[in-house]
Design goal:
The chain is an alpha/beta fold. The protein has 23 helices and 20 strands. Its cofactor is Mg(2+); thiamine diphosphate.
């Protein structure tokens, strides 16, 4: 359904004598119960207050009171991304609803199934600039799969049920349900299940057989194929099917930032992450390929570099549940619209049939790629100022926690290092803001993930800049017994911006010093701040203390833990492809590129 069509649903079936009469607010809570919701994140206010009254009575739904609505949205995202369930956030009208916008946009970019329920002013007051009125349906139209405006109590069950259907089917994404206060207060028979009428919304899940056969034939004929894997594999829960196809074809696999964990890092066919900060083998494999088998990826600019110069010799198979993504940036030679979980099973079978037992010989291709792996392994240089190397800190967090942990990152250098230096062996272990690049994502997303997966160790790997945007949710964690671990990679600056200023602006550090780390006035002092929020707080400034601090965090489960890792501000993320050029210009260190092929402007 187009985002531009925000509508009220048709009336549910006719009233029956047996249907209980509930207020609209009670209908909201009862609908969530019947849809299997067990956890919601929210913050009350006047226009949503009627819903909060019956929320107090339910024993089936845990409401977690956040300290900011953006935290509710990101927590619901983390909940969904870690568990494959739908995240739910609740807010009031006006600024409460607009505070959700960043999280909604984030979920839209990263295809996260999210339902946001907002209160709206009385329907009789809409359009009058009433107190705390905002046209949240209009505001969110471009960043939701669909938005519902509900003005009648009897429409509430249908709207909420439809929201869950839209959020979780096809390409997942956020859906908004905006309910006027008079609809919440009015009474109506509660009819369940409601009639869901979504004209035009029919996601295609089964791919066309001829396209599958054509794709299989291309794979069988390819000399330099690459499985280009995007986050759609994780959303489709298709990691097992991907592994089977990869092993059938023997082709190398690259996993984008959103797909980390979709294919095991330890697998011999995995080349790592492609893109601006991808591994040299992954970046150059795509550049040199003669066939891209693109699975749930969208040819994002951070992967392709200058799109016109990306993988210039490659034919493209593009599989996606969303037909709008096919040929949007790169024309597909074989477009396949369908659910990846089903498509991969069919494609695997078709490939096996096409090769009749004799797998294509791509040994020359692997010889080239193995040479790249040997010559350009992922690594980092020691710091020159005696401060901690952030890569080492993050690597040790991953090694000591293990693959069953969940790692949520903010945005910037620490995000890239966390994607590079933690080994991901399973889907849903890596949570980050990929498309939107939202600073402040990590702490609330980790909180949501811990609620969804309470038995797992959950880390928020955050920068000192990101942490200051949403650290108030530490109060939520402490009060609600949500013992996340937070690693602040504290370089006292907006690190990625500083890196670009170093490389492209002659070291002119305009407004990127945050004064939180080594040699600064330390405002705020993260240890004191964390202690004020009821957390165990540790500061680490020496490499020999890193492991002990991480182990203490892993052993502490009665409260959140915050570790202030004081790292070097001069550390940079490598490899790197400068923006706006061919990926052939990938640098594995400053001013060091592989001697590779013909490079064009």
């Amino acid at each position: 359904m187009p985002a531009e069509t925000a509508t009220a649903l048709p009336r549910p079936p006719a009233r029956t004598a047996s249907a209980p009469v509930l207020t609209g607010a009670q209908a909201v809570v009862r609908s969530l119960e019947l849809l299997g919701v067990t956890d919601v994140f929210g913050l009350p206010g006047g226009a949503i207050l009627p819903v909060y009254d019956p929320l107090m009575d339910t024993s089936e739904i845990r409401h977690i009171l956040v300290r900011h609505e953006q935290g509710a949205g990101h927590a619901a995202e983390g909940y969904a991304a870690a568990s494959n369930r739908i995240g739910v956030a609740i807010a009031t009208s006006g600024p409460g609803a607009t505070n959700l916008v960043t999280a909604i946009a984030d979920a839209y970019m990263d295809s996260v199934p999210l339902v946001c329920i907002t209160g709206q002013v009385f329907s009789t007051l809409m359009g009058t600039d009433a107190f705390q009125e905002a046209d949240i349906v209009g505001i969110t139209m471009p960043i939701t799969k669909h938005s519902f405006l509900v003005k009648d109590a009897e429409d509430i069950p249908g709207a909420i049920a439809a929201a869950f259907e839209v959020a979780s089917t096809g390409r997942p994404g956020p859906v908004l349900v905006d309910i006027t206060k008079d609809a919440q207060q009015a009474e109506a028979p509660f009819v369940w299940p409601p009639k869901i009428d979504l004209p035009g919304y029919r996601p295609v899940t089964k791919a066309h057989g001829k396209q599958i056969q054509a794709a299989a034939q291309l794979i069988a004929e390819a000399k330099k194929p690459v499985l280009y894997v995007g986050g759609g594999i994780i959303r489709a829960r298709a990691s097992e099917e991907l592994l089977s196809l990869a092993e059938s074809t023997g082709a190398p696999v690259v996993t984008t930032l959103m797909a980390r964990g979709a294919f095991p890092d330890s697998h011999e066919q995995h080349l790592g992450m492609p893109g601006m900060h991808g591994t040299v083998p992954a970046v150059l494999a795509l550049q040199e390929a003669d066939l891209l088998i693109t699975l749930g990826a969208r040819f994002d600019d951070r992967v392709t570099g200058k799109a016109a110069l990306f993988a210039p010799q490659a034919k493209v198979i593009h599989v996606d549940i969303d037909p709008a993504e096919i040929s949007k940036i790169r024309t597909a030679d074989v477009p396949i619209v369908g659910d990846l979980k089903d498509v991969l099973v069919d494609l695997d079978a078709a490939f096996r049939g096409a090769i009749e037992g004799a797998r294509p010989d791509i040994s020359e291709w692997w010889s080239f790629l193995d040479g790249l792996r040997s010559e350009f392994p992922l690594g980092y240089a020691p710091t020159s100022d005696g401060l901690l190397a952030p890569q080492y800190v993050i690597q040790r967090i991953g090694e000591l926690t293990g693959p069953e942990g969940v790692y949520a990152a903010g945005v910037g250098q620490h995000q890239m290092w966390a994607a590079q230096f933690i080994k991901y062996e399973r889907p849903n272990a890596w949570l980050n803001s990929g498309g939107a690049g939202t600073m402040g994502y990590a702490v609330p997303a980790a909180m949501g993930a811990k609620v969804a997966e309470p038995e797992r160790t959950v880390w928020a790997i955050d920068g000192d800049g990101c942490f200051q945007m949403t650290n108030q949710e530490l109060a939520t964690c402490a009060i609600n017994n949500i013992p996340i671990k937070v690693a602040i990679i504290n370089n006292s600056s907006l690190g990625m911006v500083r890196q670009w200023q170093t490389l492209f602006y002659d070291g002119r550090y305009s407004h990127t010093n945050l004064n939180t780390g080594h040699g600064s006035i330390r405002i705020p002092d993260f240890v004191k701040l964390a202690e004020a929020y009821g957390c165990l707080a540790i500061r680490v400034e020496k490499e020999e203390d890193v492991d002990a601090a991480i182990k203490t965090a892993l052993e502490t489960n009665d409260r959140p833990v915050v570790i202030d890792f004081v790292v070097s501000a001069d550390a940079m993320v490598w490899p790197m492809v400068p923006q706006g050029v061919s990926n052939s210009y990938v640098q594995y260190a400053r001013d060091h590129s592989p001697a590779f092929g013909e490079q064009e402007d």
